[in-house]
Design goal:
CATH architecture of the largest domain: Alpha-beta prism
CATH superfamily of the largest domain: Enolpyruvate transferase domain
Number of domains: 2
Strand content: 15-25%
Shape: globular
Number of helices: 14
Bound molecules: uridine-diphosphate-2(N-acetylglucosaminyl) butyric acid
Radius of gyration: 21 Å
Structural class: alpha/beta
Number of strands: 24
Amino acid sequence: MVRIVIEGGQPLQGRVQIAGAKNAALPLLAATLLTGGVHRLHNVPLLRDIRTAKTLLYHLGATFEEGEPLFIHTDTVDSFEAPYDLVKTMRASVLVLGPLLARFKRARVSLPGGCAIGARPINFHLSGLERLGVDIELKHGYVEAVTKRLVGNHIYFDIPTVTGTENLMMAAVLAEGQTVLENAAREPEVVELARCLNEMGACIRGMGTAAITIEGVSQLRPMDHTIMPDRIEAATYLTAAGITKGNITVTPYIPEHLEPVIHKLEQAGMRFELGDQHIRALGGEVIRNIDVTTNPHPGFPTDMQAQIMAMMCLADGQSIITEKVFENRFMHVSELRRMGANISTEGNTAIVRGRSKLQGAPVMATDLRASASLVLAGLAAEGSTEISRVYHLDRGYQKIEEKLRGLGARIKRVKG
Ligand code: EPU
């Protein structure tokens, strides 16, 4: 069993390089299925989820030339099935549904099922595809989707869904006529995908707003695209400066992507110096208690809820943290309690009563962002923290121990 062992209590200092965004890379990899040819993707992060996505593309018939950039050959794609083994490992595998339907008019994709942070159905993906003219049947745990031709339509999402918006956008770019996605997700990763699709020859307007308009085109060309920096990885390192009362420079970054998080960290007593390519985060002497409610972008990101909660465990008062995106994203609470945190939950609200200290303890990672919160807690805690099930962390944080060691952390990965 692999564990991460952290000896806490060091203020972290130095500079950290942020990788390409996982949640931008995943839909971009799926988008390579839209047209045959040789695609180039620059700044692809080296992560477990990216390996899973590449395995899925390979299974569909794509081939790769590794390196920077990554070359993806999609002329050879001749399968339309995303099998259960891959979808259960990574639910973002459902992102192949839209592109396969757009190019081949058929797809067979395993239903993802529930996961550690909630039921996470894909009903909005499926009802949206039906409105574009796709016949959908659920058989033996698989979505079987087929269409004679995709025709643009008006689609309203009950809730803004990130991968749902991305799937529908990828299906609609090659549909006949106009598609309007209303109450669409406004996350930067959705905007990044829309921009890349436009570079490929698509005609998308309104990305970054709640109404995205797509005029279908008859063909696309392969992509040559550089992936933006990962805003959640960057925000996690900024929070590391806050929780350890250190001083960390993060580069590169996109200021508007980090605004919802910086706004809260400033309220918590941190200071920031913003450069063109870098941002310097200075932890305050005291961590001030703040209330945080997660919401779709531009609200506070659910992917930072666990990390900010770890920081609030050491605040000088009581914080109320409300999770509004997922129904079950408090798996880290019981692990943080094992480190001495005083947290109670009521439905989707956590009441965190700040303490002056956390103590190192053996803890277990339950999902990607929960794992990051345990790393942050471990960095600030007294004594040794041992985190097991670290594969969750490897899904979304490239070389995390190496990067933290570069900032002065005492952290190592041990086997056995
Ligand atoms: N929802 C439905 N039906 C649907 C789709 C979504 O009820 O058909 C609900 C979900 O259950 C959830 C809400 O709508 O309550 C929003 O979920 P969304 O669809 O936006 O989430 P997602 O697309 O599955 C992406 C990210 C997540 C991130 C969320 C929210 C990727 C690959 N994943 O998931 O990232 O938390 O958006 O911002 O982009 C992570 O990186 O750790 C991660 C979980």
